[in-house]
Design goal:
This protein has 344 residues and is of the alpha/beta class. The protein contains 11 helices and 14 strands. Helices cover 31% and strands 20% of the residues.
Length: 344
């Protein structure tokens, strides 16, 4: 099988050029063609010699793939379906979804990093389907580069299918390509990585990158959180928050917590008070999310009045809190609904 060069870093491409006896500057030329000019064909890379182009066609492909389907919501949200190999861990192809969210002068893409997920959160459609493989950096970046709106993107959030910190190396390679001068050249503050809180990898993400971080919290009480999020038993939310409190979050970089509201489960003022106690001393934001119902789940979303009361309580106790607007629910593109459905 030919090697896909799209998604490789400058250093990786330099190693390829060295092995093939290409001039070292060929690696930068390849980066420019793939990440700046967004070319998906070696023959179109006209400042490479014919000999180099011929050899690249023998041993590699650029590797970009168009989405195989697109659904459009009444609110303008678009859900794209991509075929992936699942990181080479399965002989059969897998499918992942990414969501394009236009909002005034902002255009955000929510990308996936795994086919399925190991975390097993009880309320998440992705988690209910099990784990089918981690994506390569090429497959993650392909979601960003291969949608028609790619050049319009202002922000990318790693909040789609899968747990980003369970695919740490591919995520870091993706972030390097997005932020390096030889890649997209984005500010890391245009990127948010979400996690349930795999503590060792979370520490590395904070230490080794400058991206924003979002932690899926959903319940401040350990036993209740464990009943909905099994990873609480291995990585307790109290330990995650203690780690975060060791860092300075007062600059451009932001830490936020995702809190899905479940009717009669985590939406009363007792939970709000415990959330204030848990987060006290940490400069952060809490995003309240409406639960988006799916088949075979017993959960229901909180009503608007309850959510507003919860929001007001947190804000009155010096925790910045907002209710996130739901987008794309009619096409199963809202938070927790991505399932990687194949085209019928």
């Amino acid at each position: 099988m030919k090697n896909a060069l799209f998604g490789q870093t400058l250093v990786q491409l330099q190693e390829l050029c060295l092995a093939e006896s290409f001039p070292k500057f060929t690696a930068k030329q390849l980066c420019d063609w793939m990440y700046n000019k967004r070319v998906n064909d070696f023959d179109a890379m006209t400042n490479l010699s014919l000999k180099i182009r011929a050899r690249l066609n023998e041993i590699a492909t650029v590797g970009r793939q168009d989405p195989v389907d697109c659904q459009v919501s009444a609110d303008g949200t678009k859900k794209y379906l991509f075929e992936v190999a699942g990181g080479g861990q399965n002989t059969n192809s897998q499918y992942v979804e990414s969501v394009y969210i236009p909002d005034g002068d902002r255009a955000t893409l929510c990308v996936s990093c795994q086919a399925g997920c190991k975390m097993g959160c009880r309320f998440c459609v992705t988690g209910q389907q099990g784990f089918h493989g981690s994506l390569t950096a090429s497959e993650i970046l392909n979601q960003i580069f291969s949608i028609p709106e790619s050049s319009q993107l202002t922000n990318v959030v790693f909040m789609g299918m899968g747990e980003p910190l369970d695919n740490f190396d591919a995520i870091c390679q993706t972030l390097e390509t997005m932020t390096a001068s030889w890649g997209l050249g984005w500010s890391p503050h245009r990127i948010t990585v979400s996690t349930v809180g795999i503590t060792p990898m979370l520490k590395r993400l904070i230490d080794e990158t400058e991206v924003h971080v979002a932690v899926s919290l959903h319940n401040p009480f350990a036993d209740e959180r464990a009943a909905m999020m099994p990873m609480q038993k291995k990585y307790p939310i109290a330990e995650i928050v203690d780690l975060l409190k060791k860092y300075n979050w007062y600059g451009q970089r932001r830490i936020s917590f995702e809190y899905t509201m479940f009717r009669g489960i985590n939406d009363d003022l007792g939970h709000a008070a415990e959330l204030v106690r848990l987060l006290r001393g940490l400069h952060c934001r809490v995003n309240l999310i409406r639960f988006h119902s799916s088949p075979d789940t017993p959960y229901r979303t909180s009503d608007e009045r309850t959510m507003k009361t919860f929001e007001d309580y947190l804000n009155s106790h010096n925790i910045i809190c907002t209710i996130r607007a739901s987008r794309g629910e009619d096409i199963m593109a809202a938070c927790g609904l991505l399932a990687g459905k194949t085209v019928k």
